[in-house]
Amino acid sequence: MEITWFGHSAFRLDFKGTAVLIDPFFTGNPAFVSDRAAAIEGVSHILVTHGHGDHVGDTLGIAAETGATVTTNYDLGMWLVSKGLKNFNPMNTGGTTDLGTFTVTLVRADHSSGDLVDGIPIGLGNPNGVIVKAAGEPTVYHMGDTDVFSDMGLIAELHAPKIAMVPIGDRFTMGAKSAAFAVKRFFQLDAVIPCHYGSFPIVDPTADKFVAEMKGHATRVIVPEKGRRVTV
């Protein structure tokens, strides 16, 4: 499997001839420095963890251009359908769907999910993390935006992820210390990839504090260069 980080919480997974985007926040993302056409080339699926603009991002535009199927919680998905989304795979927390070369499971995240309509906040379902499983590939857990919570232990027991994308930027999600605590307390990962940092001034600018907190632990910390694929 190859994983590409596009800054903030946006990722691309490439495996078995399948290309999947997670939280494709490109437009307006100060950390997005990649070529957009290359980033979306061949994409067949988009997974969205929750309804905030920095995670929904360019989902509608990319789906229209590529015909990609969008998987997210039912409420957010139906809101996207009302805005023109054609291919929607509806789910909710705890559910799993088979998408051919992989399955996706939505799991809990401790956060919020919504947008503004005419200046009024609306809820867009519950926030989630996503579990991606493909035969012969490491199980991937994108935590979405979240705090540490004890049921991460159940997620680890049920799904045994080997690669995790973990928010570390603080203020809106876990900071470095909490994120490292979650990884060390609940998971047996081959590698962890920090995210949700280095984009807006209001969140942590680098992964340095997280790397320091993980020092000496067996889990490999991957801090990828934006837009460059890493093999896991």
Architecture blueprint of SSEs:
Elements: E1 2-5, E2 11-15, E3 18-22, H1 36-40, E4 45-47, H2 53-56, H3 59-66, E5 69-73, H4 74-82, E6 88-91, E7 96-98, E8 103-108, E9 114-117, E10 120-123, E11 128-133, E12 140-142, H5 152-159, E13 163-167, H6 176-186, E14 191-195, H7 208-213, E15 220-221, E16 229-231
Parallel strand pairs: 3-4, 4-5, 5-6, 12-13, 13-14, 14-15
Antiparallel strand pairs: 1-2, 1-16, 2-3, 7-8, 8-11, 9-10, 11-12
Give me some keywords for this one.
Metallo-beta-lactamase, Chain A; 7 helices; seven-stranded mixed sheet; globular; 232 residues
Task: Tell me about this structure.
The chain is α/β, with parallel strands linked by helices and 232 residues long. It has a single domain, classed as Ribonuclease Z/Hydroxyacylglutathione hydrolase-like (Metallo-beta-lactamase, Chain A), CATH 3.60.15. It contains seven helices and 16 strands. A seven-stranded mixed beta sheet has the order 6-5-4-3-2-1-16, covered by helices on one side. The chain has a seven-stranded mixed beta sheet with strand order 7-8-11-12-13-14-15, with helices on one face. Strands 9-10 form a two-stranded antiparallel ribbon. β14, α7 and β15 (220-221) form a beta-alpha-beta unit. The model has no long low-confidence stretch (mean pLDDT 98). Belongs to the UPF0173 family. Keywords: Hydrolase. Pfam families: Lactamase_B_2. InterPro entries: Metallo-B-lactamas, RibonucZ/Hydroxyglut_hydro, UPF0173, UPF0173_UPF0282_UlaG_hydrolase.
